[in-house]
Amino acid sequence: xxxxxxxxxxxxxxxxxxxxxxxxxxxxxxxxxxxxxxxxxxxxxxxxxxxxxxxxxxxxxxxxxxxxxxxxxxxxxxxxxxxxxxxxxxxxxxxxxxxxxxxxxxxxxxxxxxxxxxxxxxxxxxxxxxxxxxxxxxxxxxxxxxxxxxxxxxxxxxxxxxxxxxxxxxxxxxxxxxxxxxxxxxxxxxxxxxxxxxxxxxxxxxxxxxxxxxxxxxxxxxxxxxxxxxxxxxxxxxxxxxxxxxxxxxxxxxxxxxxxxxxxxxxxxxxxxxxxxxxxxxxxxxxxxxxxxxxxxxxxxxxxxxxxxxxxxxxxxxxxxxxxxxxxxxxxxxxxxxxxxxxxxxxxxxxxxxxxxxxxxxxxxxxxxxxxxxxxxxxxxxxxxxxxxxxxxxxxxxxxxxxxxxxxxxxxxxxxxxxxxxxxxxxxxxxxxxxxxxxxxxxxxxxxxxxxxxxxxxxxxxxxxxxx
Length: 468
Ligand SMILES: *Cc1c(COP(=O)(O)O)cnc(C)c1O
Known about the structure:
Elements: H1 50-63, H2 84-90, H3 93-96, H4 108-125, E1 129-131, H5 137-154, E2 162-166, H6 172-179, E3 183-187, H7 197-207, E4 211-216, H8 229-238, E5 242-247, H9 259-262, E6 266-269, H10 271-274, E7 289-291, H11 309-345, E8 361-364, H12 375-384, E9 391-392, E10 401-404, H13 412-431, H14 433-437, H15 450-455
Parallel strand pairs: 2-3, 2-4, 4-5, 5-6
Antiparallel strand pairs: 1-7, 6-7, 8-10, 9-10
Bound molecules: pyridoxal-5'-phosphate.
């Protein structure tokens, strides 16, 4: 685009002496900053007129993709609509302007919010207590595992240092266990995508007295409901371990089933997935941890103060605005939408595990492998049509994973539009594979070198002087 506003950094738009601000009148008087804290030379800040600044950032935001701009079927991430009433509630000055160190008797309203949210989550999950301190799902996993470790230690059970994790697990599960100083044992999945009970039994025969916990996601990362959970829970409990539920994707369970009833003892929930709070760019999040009665005294201190209160406000607004009856529709609708897409595309995309899925499912690339068009190419081509790509190359169980999660919020027209484009891309792969392999063609930046960008990220800008 032949316009100096596009593609330039704000520093590159800078012109010496330009001003785009006017500071308010100084009501505070002068304060002498101690000499050792003062800069020795002026900071290099961009100097731009106000309109250039406004256009620069507005153009940048238009280059971004968000739930509010288009369909975002990113599997395992639950990119659902963030209702605007949530934002209004979280921005109420009575809540927004609180200070975490305020005396307790001045924050009764905030305490009531936390208590009501805790009660709601207990009812939805079948557990007895929640802590809201963790700032993310993975932080919740760590908190839950620390709770479990403290519980075993309180019984003098020091040898319980192993955590069983299915091979289909989200990457954060083994990572959290490792950070907690626990050792990971992987249990295999069968070809139907569910945990191999025989292998689990063998592992328990071998390691039973050393098992601290088993971590599971249900529905699992393939979007499949682990129907053997009660049996798995019995096996783990019989050898003295606890059951940990990764509830990051609680979405399909809302209104359908409760982890507490299935035999789980500890779980986390991603409020920033299931309860519709925004989670672009890595935050802010909240990963409350729930436990069965009798485990709450083992909650560790994992953050100062009271967790991410504004996220909790949004989650409660979502729960209350849906209400008990509508909340029961979340799981069934998310499941219906995922199955609708799956059934509408499985003749052109490879479906490795057939049958009913829950809130998400995985294709193993295009059905016709002769075109040479990969999952990466399909994902890039989707951007040309204005859709965010699904999760790709995860889970690792398949070579060309394409993991799709529509959530419950999307209209039939949106789903049909996505299905039509996915079919169109499959057709293009046959007729004009180069077109798909070189996509995207309509985005501000074409195909980037992912590996280079990950290994050598350039995240700072350095002013080049004339002779450098
Ligand atoms: C997203 C996710 C997590 C991690 O949550 P973060 O908030 O990103 O740390 C853990 N497990 C599953 C299954 C997830 O989908």
